[in-house]
Amino acid sequence: MSRPVMPGQPDAAALIEQGRAALLQGDRATARALLEQAIAQAPDSDEAWLWLAGTHTDPALMAACLRRALAINPHNEQAQEGLHWLAEQHGSAFDAPAPPAGAATAAPPAPLSTASAMPDVDRSWPALLEAALHPLAAGALLGLTRLTAWLWPAELLRLRQDQALGLAGALGITLLTALAHGGALLLAWLALGRLIDRIRVTGRGDRFDSLLRVGRAWTPAYLWSGALVALLLGLRLGPAGWRTLTLLAGVLLLIGAALVGRRLWRLPTALGLAEERQPSAALQLLIGALLVALPGLLLAGWLSRALWRII
What we know:
Elements: H1 12-24, H2 28-41, H3 46-53, H4 59-72, H5 77-90, H6 125-151, H7 154-162, H8 167-199, H9 207-217, H10 224-234, H11 239-270, H12 278-310
Helix pairs in contact: 1-2, 1-3, 2-3, 3-4, 4-5, 6-8, 6-9, 6-10, 6-12, 8-9, 8-12, 10-11, 11-12
């Protein structure tokens, strides 16, 4: 039974339009609330059920909404195409046949509960900044590790003898190196977020969620701080000790990079891709990360070296 519209309250058509606009902007939580209000007023609106399907990231909930739309209007082509698409990605269980014509006049079921939906993404600016911080910090750690490796042995000895590099110069090189390498991985983060938008199944077009997922994939790179500490300690040792700690630093860098790659490889599974598509999508992500990150890191290293020679 439809709910009467109170004076001053938007009608179902207005709520559907507002929900559609919120969904297209990537705000699934707001869109879901608006569309559920519209369904409470007009439970026989196949358009409201169709758009509600887009607010969910769980394929089962998406399919349930699309089936409700078809139960109301068996000729809704968008709902039929949505179910066919879900079937291609997740199996034939989602490809339900169109309901009989008599279903169009049947009373629609009660509104779908969203209690089992996946948790909404935290869409605050602090959450996005936190996600951006991980690749930025990883790049900074990598840059400072490279800078420390350049210091031994000849450069450090020359600097101690000539005292050519003052405190301001040292801080300038350190800051530029960290920012240049961090910026390179930050660009890779943005590029991978865009790439995920193109290959993901659930939440397609949700750039915010894509960026959050890619940002969190970089958290194992904090292991590179151990490599930096090892090299800093090695600056006080002789050649034998330096070689040992350099080897340790290299191992920590490789482990951190492998863990980041492992998380990127698993992203297609978390994004709901069909099993047969997951390896190719994961490979696409890894290649994309390398194609963006490596040139940026090489350029950052060249800039740091050039500044080193100038100062």
